[in-house]
Amino acid sequence: MDAKRVVDSFLSSRHDVTKFGVIIQNCKTLFRHYYENSTVEFVRRQANEVAHKLVKAALLSTSLQVLFEIPDCIENTLINEML
Known about the structure:
The longest helix has 16 residues, at 19-34. Helices cover 58% and strands 0% of the residues. It has helices spanning 3-11, 19-34, 49-60, 72-82. The protein folds into 2 domains: 3-34, no CATH class; 45-82, no CATH class. By secondary structure, the chain is an all-alpha fold. It contains 4 helices and no strands.
């Protein structure tokens, strides 16, 4: 499923009675309850490649990590985005 469609549906006030709409409505309810100071936005992967790579690496980790140095998996991408 397209991530843009999910975000657009999440931000929409339209009522969707499909299974997809019910799932989005449940997500909205949970989001309002647990993440009141947060927002949902769509960011193209090309524009946020560092975050995408970091999340991908974090999902492979089985334990909590605190990083004090730039991980190898994102160092080159991060440096290229800063230029």
